[in-house]
């Protein structure tokens, strides 16, 4: 789902650079916050609910309906994810 989050940003389903800003501004400075933060993003994507930047579009199809728990990533892993994004 992390990869899809980047894709959703690239095709305009998420606000511009939301995922990239999250990596740079929130999760890289505090890697321990990544799992809960990205799970909150996925929950907002599932419901069309509010996230830090405002209300997100509802993602149909059930992909985010049972997103489970996000894996915790360390700083090095987050840096790799940022490069990919």
Describe this structure in words.
Strand 1 (50-51) and strand 2 form a beta hairpin. The protein has four helices and two strands, in the order αααββα. The protein is mainly alpha-helical and 85 residues long.
The geometry reads as globular
The tally of beta strands, per DSSP, is 2
| H and E string | HHHEEH
Radius of gyration: 12 Å
The biggest beta sheet is recorded as:
2 strands, antiparallel
Overall pLDDT confidence = 88
C-alpha end-to-end distance: 13 Å
Number of helices: 4
List descriptors.
85 residues; 2 strands; 5% strand; mainly alpha; two-stranded antiparallel ribbon
List the helices and strands and how they pair.
Layout: H1 2-10, H2 18-27, H3 34-47, E1 50-51, E2 54-55, H4 75-84
Antiparallel strand pairs: 1-2
Helix pairs in contact: 2-4
Would you summarize the structure shown here?
With 85 residues, the chain is mainly α. Helix content is 51%, strand content 5%.
């Amino acid at each position: 789902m992390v990869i899809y989050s980047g894709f959703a940003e690239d095709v305009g389903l998420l606000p511009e650079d939301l995922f990239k800003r999250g990596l740079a501004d929130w999760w890289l400075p505090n890697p321990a916050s990544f799992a809960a933060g990205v799970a909150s993003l996925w929950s907002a994507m599932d419901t069309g609910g509010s996230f830090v930047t405002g209300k997100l579009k509802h993602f149909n199809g059930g992909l985010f309906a049972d997103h489970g728990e996000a894996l915790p990533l360390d700083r090095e892993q987050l840096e790799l994810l940022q490069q990919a994004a």
